UniProtKB/TrEMBL annotation:
It comes from Medioppia subpectinata. Pfam families: AMOP, C8-3_MUC4, VWD. PROSITE patterns: AMOP (PS50856), VWFD (PS51233). This is VWFD domain-containing protein. The keyword Transmembrane applies. Keywords: Disulfide bond, Membrane, Transmembrane, Transmembrane helix. Residues 10-163 form the AMOP domain.
Length: 459
């Protein structure tokens, strides 16, 4: 194309293209205020799994950074477009620090068009890939990359005027809650408790003028054991598609570990290089190196993220990531996120539940808090109705309000497992799972998952 451009516009064709682009930008809205701010460090970007996903080319695995982000070790992108259809790219160097356009033209920067487009797609600025290249990538080439003097050229300074990196001064780390083991729950405010209900329950419920988020969990009894574990999760954020992930039966895990449904339609990550699936209001991402659907992350428009992993012992490990706009707006088994552990166990109608603390027994917590979040197939005030697709088995097959798990571990229970201290150390969740399952491997995995959940919460 260059010979044609030279013939048509002269030797200064790139200068003309850049100035035309600059003039057009000056007439458009200031989109950069609508995108998420970058995490300050590489570690923070990897732990913010509701808002940011690895760039599919410039990342620590593929390392295809030279063209757009030369010198970067890893870049992340916003997983979903902003309200106006824009995106954000954040890049990090070998020291895990932000690479900004103030230092090099290859720094991360916001983009007027989101790389995957925005619904309804057949509109200006919303066409997948094409809009992104037209408004954000091609201007980088003819303003900077192809300009005499590169980043020292006047046209590259013009490009950076509208595409300058944003600092991380207003970035806030997400809140994280976890479900692991047989099953144990760590709330957003870090209250750790055990709940062995059998049925479908509300994990997170938010319903206000800004956010409408529902995350439901299905707990099923483990074969021949007096305990349950998480086997399925269903999520809807505002008007997004309903995403459901189910643990496959053991005999069906020879290739894939999870079933994935979007609005009752089954999806697969069926190619080794297939990393993401776009649905209405949500992106589903399979991390690099995962080829059997054993780890899937759902990222929603609100910034909420749900990470589902299949642990080596065959249970689901769930992490939920929420931005700070959800503070004081959540209820469910994952607790009221208020940065105050004392009000974690709020009931569905807003009344105070049992006081969280070491004196609260598992039985009291089950009866007076967790069981209040049991779902029905029909709509229930303050809870809604189950998001799960009950096919081929209906809701009643999973719901058992009379199920009696092991409530507390006794001294007699511990005598049956003389190596419990060696396996579990000071992890009470590990001890409980060892007693329930009789499997030191399962208990050891619970201890590892608990430690990993605590690590995620560190900035």
């Amino acid at each position: 194309m260059r010979p044609y451009w030279i013939k048509e516009y002269g030797n200064q064709w790139n200068d003309r293209f850049c100035r035309d682009w600059f003039d057009r930008e000056s007439q458009l809205d200031r989109f950069a205020v609508t995108v998420f701010r970058c995490p300050c460090t590489l570690t923070q970007s990897e732990r913010d799994r509701g808002r940011f996903a690895p760039d599919l080319q410039c990342n620590v695995i593929d390392k295809k950074c030279d063209t757009l982000h030369h010198g970067a070790l890893h870049c992340v992108r916003t997983a979903r477009p902003s309200i106006g259809g824009s995106g954000q790219t954040c890049c990090y160097d070998d020291y895990g620090e932000l690479v900004q356009t103030a230092d090099t033209m290859y720094g991360g920067r916001p983009s007027r068009a989101f790389v995957y487009g925005k619904h309804p797609f057949k509109q200006r600025l919303m066409v997948p890939t094409m809009s992104y290249w037209l408004y954000d990538i091609m201007p980088f080439f003819y303003c900077c990359k192809w300009a005499p003097g590169d980043e020292n050229s006047k046209t590259c300074q013009m490009f950076n005027y509208w595409r300058t990196s944003q600092d991380c001064s207003s970035y806030q780390t997400p809140g994280v809650a976890t479900v692991y083991g047989d099953p144990h729950i760590i709330t957003f405010d870090r209250y750790n408790y055990t709940f062995n209900g059998k049925g479908e329950f509300v994990l997170v419920h938010t319903d206000n003028a800004v956010h409408k988020l529902d995350i439901h969990g299905r707990f099923e009894q483990m074969p021949n054991l007096n305990g349950t574990h998480l086997t399925a999760v269903a999520i809807r954020d505002n008007i997004s598609s309903i995403v459901e992930l189910r643990l496959r039966p053991v005999a069906a895990r020879w290739q894939f570990q999870l079933y994935l449904f979007g609005d009752k339609e089954m999806y697969y990550f069926w190619q080794p290089d297939m990393r993401s699936i776009q649905m209405k209001g949500v992106m589903l991402y399979q991390p690099a190196g995962i080829r059997n659907m054993s780890q899937i992350i759902a990222m929603f428009d609100s910034g909420a993220g749900v990470e589902i992993s299949v642990s080596p012992v065959g249970s689901i490990l769930l992490n939920v990531y929420l931005p700070n706009t959800f503070i004081n707006n959540t209820r469910g088994l994952l607790g009221k996120w208020s940065r105050d552990i004392n009000d974690d166990l709020e009931l569905p109608d807003g009344r105070s539940g049992p006081r969280a603390g070491p004196s609260l027994t598992t039985r009291d917590l089950h009866d007076n808090f967790a069981n209040q979040y049991r779902l029905k197939e029909t709509n229930t005030p303050n809870l809604g109705q189950s998001l799960f697709w009950h096919n081929p088995v209906d809701h009643s097959n999973y719901d058992d309000i009379k199920f009696e798990p092991l409530w507390d571990v006794t001294a007699q229970d511990l005598e049956k497992h003389p190596d419990v201290d060696k396996v579990c150390s000071d992890s009470t969740a590990c001890v409980y799972d060892y007693v329930v399952t009789g499997d030191s491997g399962y208990a050891g995995q619970t201890k590892k998952d608990e430690a990993a959940a605590e690590l995620i919460r560190r900035d």
